[in-house]
Amino acid sequence: MKYTLVIMNLFYTPDIKGDYYILSPEESKHCLRVLRMGAGDSLVLVDGQGGWYEGVIEDANVKGCGVRICRVQEHYGQRPFRMHLAIAPTKNMDRMEWMLEKCTEMGIEAITLLETAHSERKVVRMDRLEKVAVSAMKQSQKAYLPELRAVSVFRQFVSDCTERYKFIAHCHAGEKKRLDEVYVPGEDALVLIGPEGDFSTEEVAFAQAHGFVPITLGISRLRTETAGMVACHSINFMNKV
Question: What value does the mean pLDDT take over residues 163-185?
Answer without folding.
Answer: 96
